[in-house]
Design goal:
- The model has no long low-confidence stretch (mean pLDDT 95).
- The protein is built from twelve helices and ten strands.
- Helix content is 39%, strand content 16%.
- By secondary structure, the protein is an alpha/beta fold.
- It has an eight-stranded parallel beta barrel, surrounded by seven helices. A two-stranded antiparallel ribbon has the order 8-9.
- It has a single domain, classed as TIM Barrel.
- It starts with a helix and ends in a 13-residue tail after the last helix.
Length: 311
């Protein structure tokens, strides 16, 4: 039995992301009332039992809203997983062990909790490997806070797959979040998923829509993840979208199912702003997908040079 098995048995295949839970969040943000209503719906949802946040989402507003929802609800349900992440100082860039401790203290204060079950080191691409793994660095501090009982399990969350490979290989982490690197048009995290699964980590795949590009068809030139989508990536998205249209399947349903059907992935994180987003996601989950669609999608040629971690 792997170290994450007991937690994995409780994690649903779908998780809700809170990156836009602020008045100025990604894509326009949301109201406090929207966030609290959605949190309460998630606490009672049979399909989503994981809420993912971070110290720096909305510069702390995401966690503040979650804390308000927790107080109004009367606590976090026992079978519900709330996970957060420790971050660098977004003004000074400080990513020291002391900053990581303060980051978690800020999160606990906002959430109104004494501990969080699962806490990730977030975006360590913003420091060096040597600094991250130093005796007084963020990884050591995160493990020390676990030993003190401020959290139960430690995770690693970030961007570049080859960087995350190194953290997975340390054997120190219980969970992984990768984002924008395992979608219908970007397979850059495929080896990372295999590595993490073999190591017994709980695996979360975030942003299967690539920041919104894969939510509708036809796909117009626009942004993928955090930058402009290359023309060849847009071409691949449109070719897959046309296959979905012929099969009577929304492109978003296929993009979501692509992640959720992969046995290496325990849970797929979808950003949600309002209760309508939860309902729309449930509808996508319920949409039937013909057996032949996946073989057709697999046959669409992809250009690795357009991926987030281009070789």
């Amino acid at each position: 039995m792997s170290k994450s098995d007991t937690l994995a048995s409780r994690v649903t295949a779908l998780a809700a992301g809170t990156g836009a839970w602020s008045s100025a969040g990604a894509g326009g943000g949301s109201s406090v009332a929207d966030s609290v209503e959605l949190a309460h719906a998630l606490f009672e949802s049979p399909s989503v039992r994981v809420l993912d946040t971070s110290n720096n989402y909305g510069l702390g507003e995401s966690e503040t809203r979650i804390g308000l929802a927790i107080r109004e609800y009367g606590g976090v349900p026992d079978d519900f997983l709330l996970q957060t992440k420790v971050d660098r100082d977004m003004v000074t860039g400080d990513f020291s062990g002391l900053r990581v401790r303060r980051s978690l203290e800020e999160s606990l204060e906002r959430l109104g909790l004494d501990k969080v079950e699962l806490v990730y080191l977030h975006d360590p691409e913003n420091t060096t490997w040597e600094a991250s793994m130093a005796d007084d660095g963020p990884v050591a501090e995160l493990l020390a806070m676990r030993d003190e009982g401020l959290l139960s399990r430690v995770g690693i969350s970030g961007g570049p797959a080859d960087m995350l490979d190194r953290y997975v290989d340390t054997g120190l982490f219980d969970a992984l979040i990768t984002h924008n690197r395992y979608t219908l048009v970007d397979r850059g995290a495929a080896e990372l998923l295999t590595r993490a699964r073999s190591a017994g980590l709980l695996v979360f795949n975030a942003s299967p829509y690539g920041g919104g590009l894969l939510t509708r068809w036809p796909v117009a030139a626009g942004r993928y993840a955090y930058g402009e989508a290359p023309a060849e990536l847009v071409r691949a998205a449109n070719e897959i979208g046309a296959l979905c249209e012929d099969a009577g399947v929304p492109l978003a349903a296929a993009a979501l199912a692509w992640s959720m059907r992969d046995r290496r992935i325990d849970s797929t994180i979808i950003g949600m702003r309002t209760i309508d987003d939860l309902r729309a996601t449930d509808a996508l989950l319920a949409h039937p997908l013909p057996d032949g669609l996946w073989a057709a999608i697999d046959a669409v040629p992809l250009d690795p040079s357009t991926w987030q971690d281009a070789p």
